[in-house]
Amino acid sequence: MIMKTAIIYSHSATKTKQAAKHIKEAFEKPIDDIDVDGLNPDDLKKYDLLILGAPTWFDGELPHYWDELVPAIEDLNLKKQKVAIFGNGDQVKYPENFGDAVGLLAEVFESAGATTIGKTSTEGYTFEASKAIRDGEFAGLILDFENQSKLNKSRAKTWVEAINN
Q1: Contact (Cβ atoms closer than 8 angstroms) between residue 127 and residue 90
Q2: Mean pLDDT over all residues of the chain?
Q3: R_g of the chain computed on alpha carbons
Q4: Nearest-CA neighbor of 39 among 11, 18, 14?
Q5: Residue 2 pLDDT grade (very low, low, confident, very high; cuts 50, 70, 90)
Q6: Which residues contact 159 (CB under 8 A, 6 or more apart)?
Q7: Residue 138: which of 94, 84, 90, 92 has the closest Cα?
Q8: Number of domains into which the chain is organized
Q9: In which element (H, E) is residue 154 found?
Q10: Angle at 72 between CA 96 and CA 16, to 5 degrees
Q11: Are 159 and 127 in contact (CB under 8 A)?
Q12: Would you state the torsion angle of the CA atoms of residues 60, 99, 6, 35, taken in this order, to the nearest 10 degrees?
């Protein structure tokens, strides 16, 4: 049973904040809401489940606020933590690196020993490539606010149900 949960994302990233709102509404359990901009990486070890959010920037990059934390996260022992990752992407304008940030964050946290949960189907998306793909599925939840915003709330709800089981 998952006990202590945190959702971590940039509170100044408008679409990621909206995605986090959908996730928190569906979660139905106490969840700490943490702004990644003020995150102390050592605090990650306080939680059983880390729900991490990041949009994909530019040509498939992590936002600077996550990228700057990578060395400190990689030095942690997160073997007791589970991570579920959500992100935003635009499958029309950026089909060659759709939702890459989800895959990049998964790699960082797995290198620190964390277990990634919450894979989602690629069905219903049209894109060329994504670093988020693992064994034919996304490593987490990817929402497309530009092209499929009407699906965001239901996708978030389904994802939260899966990570809670």
Answers
A1: no
A2: 95
A3: 14
A4: 11
A5: low
A6: 23, 26, 84, 86, 118, 120, 140, 141
A7: 84
A8: 1
A9: helix 152-163
A10: 45
A11: no
A12: 50
Task: Residue 131: give its domain's CATH number.
Answer: 3.40.50.360
Q: Token match 């060395």: residue?
A: 71
* Helices and strands, number each (H, E), in the chain: 5, 9
Q: Which tokens sit at 86?
A: 């959500």
Amino acid at 69: L
Residues β-bridged to residue 52: 8, 85
The encoded tokens of residue 158 equal 């389904």
Structural domain boundaries, residue 70: 5-163
Mind listing the pLDDT tens digit for each residue in 109-134?
Answer: 999 999 999 999 999 999 999 999 99
DSSP 87-128: EE--TTT-GGGTTHHHHHHHHHHHHTTPEEE--EE-TT---S
